[in-house]
Structures are given as structure tokens and as C-alpha cells.
Amino acid sequence: MIYHELVIVGGGLAGLRAAIEAKKQGIDVAIVSQVWPGRSHSGAAQGGVNAALANHPESADDTWEKHAFDTVKGSDYLADQDAVVQMTKDAIPVIYELDHAGCPFSRFDDGRIAQRPFGGAGYPRTCYGADKTGHYMLHTMVEQAIEARVPMYVEWFVARLVVDDGVCRGVVAYDMVRGGFELFQAEAVVIATGGAGRVYSNSTNAIISTGYGMAMAYHAGVALKDLEFVQFHPTGLLTTNILMTEGARGEGGYLVNDLGERFMEKYAPTAMELAPRDITSRSIQTEINEGRGIGGKGYVHLDLRHLGAQKILEKLPGIRDLAIHFEGVDPIEEPIPIVPSQHYSMGGIDTDMDGRTTMPGLYAAGECACVSVHGANRLGGNSLLETVVFGRRAGAAAAQYIDGLDEFGRSAAVGEEALADVRDRVRSLANREGGEDPYAIRAAMASTMKEHFGVFREASVMQAGLETMMDLKARVTNVELRHAGGVFNLDMIRTFELEGMVDVALGIAAGALARTESRGSHARTDFPERDDANWLEHTLALYEPDGGPRLEAKAVGLGMFEPQERKY
Ligand SMILES: Cc1cc2nc3c(=O)[nH]c(=O)nc-3n(C[C@H](O)[C@H](O)[C@H](O)COP(=O)(O)OP(=O)(O)OC[C@H]3O[C@@H](n4cnc5c(N)ncnc54)[C@H](O)[C@@H]3O)c2cc1C
């Protein structure tokens, strides 16, 4: 048994920021992470992070209020406005805090932090470090956590929460390096496990972005919110779905169809290529569906050639490398073939502005959480921001909760039962013979989600997809573990993940089928209009072991911005 007052599951930006904050408040906190924190998906973020610093010559009168307005409009009015206000106000000090910690942001000639235009933003307000912003932020934060002497359990996979009498009291985790399961007792837990992109087969996300952390909370009885809102990024590489940052269009890149047209003119005549992602992805998909993809095929071009070699090498060097190595195309010489690709989970664990869930002792922050600041569609550059703003707040709130526990509220020795349970489960999986192949189920799930719950959605297609997902869920109960070894048993991890992924995917499917309107990323051909009278509300999904989720509605936090029609 291992004890820390606070256990943070996940070493991405949100988890690191939460840990640093709790440590500052004198809490005994540790990070438990499946990978070395510096390899978390946060490090793959390219384009930048938003804050109304007003450094760009064209953004002199930018303010946090304008950032808040763009975010709420971008969310199709589903974001909770108090949370958006908090985030956009905090954005400015948060960027300076990162800067002072040594994060190497790109600079203007006058030495101020550089900013570039991004989709759906009224001003150029996205701060960046070339096209490696997430990498720079993540490594800055890893250094800060090491300096603060936060213990890190690296290459430990958290398999289950320990819940005692309705209170979260720790986790059961698998030690990949030494083999075997261990109980972590704690006064509180923060889940910071990132997104669920890998439930789709066409995702820009890392292999470890499975949504398993969301599922752990869900299985323990905490609601997942707004799962049906899945962001498709307009520009993933054709063959691998690897991301080509929105920064490429921020720097002036064009989207072009087979006729050589900059087709965004038809869909967003003012914003053009810098319309928000939901609108841009739908525009690309429409061009493809109507036969104007390149050569009539299923992709269009992202053309950077007119930016010139110098700008590409200076501002987008990583994009060029990725395009050369994974698509065989040098953007200085040729246009890049791209397709809309699953990119971000707007939904997640239902929390308040301090990362609190409905379960005492359980907090969540970052992409696995739904505060909600992104509503039905996230603006580019707002997610890196969310991780640090709400990671900090969750760490502070958990620390305060722990400080407030009297000696009777503190952890009794609990969790042995959960540990024994997990061990039994693994044993029975390993002993089963002739069971289902978990990899085949996973592949079927990911392609079902891609084909049935993509950019455009329609009832009969979704209904068929939901039925397939229910069959897959039934098959998951009969999977067989092929490898029973103790050390680095990735077969076992993938099997655990699969159980969680299928439930998260079913939550997406059920929410999407139920929501009979189009809002943000959720675009229904059979209900093309937004329906504020009936649907200006969050969806809560509650776990039911034997089927799809139970859905409930939750009110949206409205505020300073009245819902209007979205035009760009
Ligand atoms: C390619 C790409 C580019 C992006 N670019 C941008 C951008 O330019 N701007 C922007 O704002 N946003 C961007 N985003 C989104 C943004 O990067 C992410 O939403 C954000 O970094 C998520 O951070 P996180 O801390 O929540 O999770 P992550 O960084 O994903 O970290 C998750 C952590 O949880 C751990 N973990 C997960 N499950 C377990 C488990 N069961 N047990 C133990 N540990 C576990 C992992 O080891 C990891 O440390 C991008 C995303 C992608 C995929």
C-alpha cells in the first residue's frame, strides 16, 4: 500500500498544474501516470494558447471580454459563461506565469510574446512557440513539478477508483515495470487523463488518449457531460490523420478544392479559412460529398506554398516535417492532402469551476473534464489554456478539501477489497479460453464511431451505429487475455481500456441520437437547425451496467452573452 494525501492520475498539463498547486499549499501530492509526463499528449499540441495580451498590432484593443465572447459564440452558446469568464480572465496571468517559468514563446521584434490569428477569434490572440507550443508548455511544467519535488509514479496504469461510502479514497494501479497491482490510499483524487479520441479510428490523438479516465469516474457513478460533442479538426493528414495545426491557416494557408477554388468563400465569406472548426470541417466534408474533393476523391488541399519557404521554415517547421515524413509532401513545393479528423472531446467528467465532481474527494481537470468552457465546439488554443487554468483550480480545491478534513474524516484503511477485485478480474480474464479478441472489438468500435457518428449525423445511420455498439459491449464481457505475464502486460491494459472505451463510445452515440438539433460540432442532416427552445441544455450520461447510458438534462450557465445566430 502506498499513501499520499492527494493522488493525481495523469501527468499532462492539467495533472502537472494541479500537482504543483497542491504542493504549493503544503499537500503531500503524487502523480501517477501511464507514460513519462513529458510524453503526454499535451506535448503534441502545435498551434498555440489563447490570451488577450493585445500584443499583436491588430489586437491593441483586445480584452478578456472579447475572448469570452468569441469562446461563447464558438461554443454555440452551450458553454457555461461563468467558467468562460474565469478562464479568459485568468488567461493573461497564466501566460505570464508560464513565460516567467521559462516557456520559450515566440516573440515579436519588440520582445513581446508573439500572437497569431486562430479560427473563430476576433483578434490575433493565440500565443505560440513556433508550431511546438504544447511541447514547450509541457516541458516547462515538468521542470516545475520536478523542482517542487512532486513524486511521480511513471509507467503505472490506474485501473480503478477506490470508493468508500460514496467518497473517493484512492486508486488501484498496475505497476508496468515491476508487474502487479498496488493500492494507493488517498484523501482525494484528481483525474487528469486527457481526451477520448481513440474511440474513433480517424483521430489525431495519441494512442493513450482512450478516455479510460472518464470511464473510471463514469463506472463509479459520476455523470459524463455533453459526450456527443466531438470535435473534428479540419486538417488531418489524409493517410494518418496526423494533425496539421490551425496555425497553418493562421499564418495564411488556403483550403482549396479540385476546381482550385478557395471554397470557404461560400461558407464563411468573412472569416474564410479562419472560421471555427465545426464550420470549416463541415465545409470540407460538403466539398468532398459533392464531388469537388481532389480528383473527385475524399480529400482537399491545404496550400501553404504562397507563404514562401522562409515563413514556413520559421513558423511551421514541425508541420513541414510531419507532411514530408508521413505524407511524402513538402509544403514548400506542394499542397498538403487533408481530411477532417477526430480531434477533441468537448464532453467529459461533469465538474464545477473548481474541478469538483458530484463525488466527495473526486476532482477532474483538462480534456477528460467538462467544466464546460467549450460547449458544443471548442475554439483552437482554448484547450491548452483550459488545462492550466482549471488544473490549477482543481489542485487548489482538492488541497482545501483535504485541509478541511478532521481526523475522523481522514482515510481509514480502505481499498483492499477493490485491489482484490481487480486482481480477481485479471485472473479470470487470463483463465478464460476461447473468448473474444479485444483488438478485433476495438477496431470494430473505432470504425463504427467514424462511420456512424462523424461530421454529419442522421437518425437511421446513428441508430444502426448504436445497435452495433450495443453488440460490441456485449462481446466485451467475453474477452480473453492472450498474455498473462506480470511485467509490461499491454494486452491487459488494452483490455481494461476497451471496457471503458466502449462505454464512453456508447455515451457519445446515445447523446448524439437523442439530441434532435444541430449545435456546434453536432450537425444533424435531419435536424439542421439549432433548437434553443428544447436543447439549450447539457446532456448528462449516467452509467448503466447492462446497456446504454441513462440520459438527463442539466441547465446551461447563461450570463453576459445572449444566444444569437452564429455567422462568420
Ligand atoms: C495533435 C494535437 C494538437 C493539439 N494542439 C492544440 C493547440 O495548439 N492548442 C490547444 O489549445 N489545444 C491543442 N490540442 C488539445 C490539447 O493539447 C489537449 O486537450 C490537452 O493538452 C490535454 O491535456 P491533459 O492534461 O488534459 O491530458 P494529456 O496531455 O492527454 O495527458 C493525459 C495524461 O494522463 C495519463 N493517463 C491517462 N490514462 C491513464 C491511466 N489510466 N493511468 C495512469 N495515467 C493515465 C497519461 O499518461 C498522460 O500523462 C491538441 C491536441 C492534439 C491531439
What can you tell me about this protein's structure?
- By secondary structure, this protein is α/β, with parallel strands linked by helices.
- Among the domains are: 236-339, Flavocytochrome C3, Chain A, domain 1 (Alpha-Beta Complex); 432-537, Fumarate reductase/succinate dehydrogenase flavoprotein-like, C-terminal domain (Methane Monooxygenase Hydroxylase, Chain G, domain 1).
- Helices cover 36% and strands 17% of the residues.
- It contains 16 helices and 23 strands.
- The chain has helices at residues 13-24, 64-74, 81-100, 133-147, 212-219, 247-250, 264-267, 277-289, 309-315, 317-327, 382-404, 416-431, 438-452, 459-476, 490-514, 532-535; strands at 2-3, 6-9, 29-33, 49-50, 115-116, 126-127, 152-154, 156-164, 167-175, 181-185, 188-191, 224-225, 230-237, 254-256, 300-303, 336-345, 348-350, 362-364, 369-370, 456-457, 523-524, 537-542, 550-555.
- A hairpin with a 5-residue loop joins strand 9 and strand 10 (181-185).
- The N and C termini lie far apart (56 Å).
- 58% of the residues are buried.
- It binds flavin-adenine dinucleotide.
Structural class: alpha/beta
Instruction: Give the amount of beta strand, in percent.
Output: 15-25%
Please count the helical segments: 16
Q: Which oligomerization state do the chains in this entry correspond to?
A: single chain
Strands, count: 23
How far apart lie the N and C ends? Answer: 56 Å
The name of the CATH topology of the domain at 432-537 is: Methane Monooxygenase Hydroxylase, Chain G, domain 1
Strand order of the largest sheet: 7-3-2-11-18
Overall CATH architecture of the domain at 432-537: Up-down Bundle
Largest sheet: 5 strands, parallel
Helical content band: 25-40%
- CATH homologous superfamily of the domain at 432-537 - what is it? Fumarate reductase/succinate dehydrogenase flavoprotein-like, C-terminal domain
**Average pLDDT, all residues:** 96
